[in-house]
Amino acid sequence: MAMKDNPKVEDNFPWDQSLRNHFTVSWTFPKFVLSSLLLISILCISYTVSFSNASRKEPNIVEPVRVNAGEKSTATAPPPVSAPETNSSQKTTLRHIVFGIAASARLWDQRKNYIKLWWKPQQMRGVVWLDRGVKNGTDDHLFPPRRVSGDTSKFKYNNPKGHRSAIRISRIVSETLRLGMEDVRWFVMGDDDTFFVPDNLVRVLSKYDHNQFYYIGSSSESHLQNINFSYGMAYGGGGFAISYPLAKALAKMQDRCIQKYPGLYGSDDRIHACMAELGVPLTKEHGFHQYDVFGNLLGLLSAHPVAPLVSIHHLDKVEPIFPNVNRVQALKRLDLPIDLDSAALMQQSVCYDKTRSWTVSVSWGYTVQIYRGIFSVREMEMPARTFLNWYKRADYTGFSFNTRPVTRHVCQKPFVYYLSKASRSKNTNQTTCEHVRHPVPNPNCMWKMPDPSRIDRVEVYRKPDPNLWDKSPRRNCCRVLPNKKKGTMFIDVGECGDDEVIELR
Fold first, then answer.
1. What letters, b where the CB count within 10 A reaches 16 and e where it falls short, cover 196-222?
2. Bridge-partner residues for 147, per DSSP?
3. Closest Cα to residue 199, out of 287, 303, 102?
């Protein structure tokens, strides 16, 4: 009898029925159970036989397809096999970095000479992005390939002091990404008036996991610049690096992002705005230099932070870093120390000639400065104000770091010795940098102590340390070596020894 006709099961089996009815029901129920058990047994045997036959065939394993949140998977079969990925544990090299260089056609013939100084055609990859095409030259093979940036007329720009070229420049990383280069870990942005030290760039980026979101660079030297824009922004002229996964994320949303900020001034603050929307803060590295200054970089470069020198920007705005030559010739002179020991370039060491009461500051591969008197390291590591603020009405308090006057007394004006040549001994693996005195008059000094003007040449010895930046940051120590050669000072620079301290005595 169907269950729907008898809602209550108890009604079919009244306890006061006759014995015969009870026997019938008792017999029917076991019969039903036995039939069900027999059917289940037959199905189990059938399934076991089928499984046994299938197990004799080669297994066809299908890997699960990963679907991002919000996506719908239409895959009904395993995805096609792609090219094997590069071993991410491999050490980062120049080949893993792709440069995007912002340039203008109007200044190309002048500024391309800066790029030629540091570009290594056989080792590096990148693109120069121009606002329009330029004529081919016989030296084109010495530069990255050139491309014209995409049309940006659809984007709004209403900053009254800026130029809408900032929009095309802000899209350089995304446009470079879309070229589809393989085995890329980092995209590095820079201007055509920026000088890079490529090996130091590799040293810096090697510290970070390129599979994560990283936005690496530095802020401006000008306090007012940082206030007007942001202390959390990487200034584009000094260069900044974006990891590959972050560049992919940026490319997906950047055009939408740009449209939201028509009032921003430049390209780097547009990048910063998009980084803020992606939730990625700036990772600061002190070797990227915007150099929003005018004048002479001597004070900044000779007191460089304890970090690898990565870039120098605004080369057209500052004086040549070496005297009596043009800007390109001055930077070309850095080829010698870069080839010998790029990791140590511009690293400052401070020591004392105690017999003559002199303080000596060495900026390796660049200058040696001798001061009358004994100055603390704390003071010497502050840049001397040989430069002016980007905002000409701002005084020395307008910098984003501590500075010191060039001299507080006529007798304290330093004697400066610039690099003239450099070499390395194959036998000892020791480098020798020779510096000659810059022939400018020093004021008369009435102090009764030896006169540094009698020193015409300074030789600095140093053994390259390939692991310099694999350790915690620390200044090298320098030692004034005893000698009897008139007119020459000898200095040894290297890792500080046990219990060696640069202290006043």
1. bbbbbbbbbbbebebeebbbbbbbbbb
2. 129
3. 287
* 8 A C-beta contact, residue 433 and residue 422: yes
Distance CA 291, CA 313 (A): 6
Domain ranges of the chain: 94-284, 335-494
pTM, two decimals, is 0.82
Given CA atoms 197, 200, 205, 206 in this order, what sign does their dihedral have? positive
Q: What percent of the chain is modeled with pLDDT above 70?
A: 82
Task: Tokens for 19, please give them.
Answer: 């014995």
Strands ordered across the beta sheet of 215-217: 146-148, 125-130, 97-102, 186-191, 240-243, 215-217, 283-284
CA distance 397 to 379: 16
Segment holding 477, helix H or strand E: strand 477-481
- Mean pLDDT (the chain, rounded): 86
- What gap in Å lies between CA 327 and CA 347, rounded to an integer? 21
Kindly report the CATH class assigned to 94-284.
Answer: alpha beta
pLDDT < 50 regions, the chain:
1-34, 44, 47-86
Q: How far apart are CA 268 and CA 236, in angstroms?
A: 5
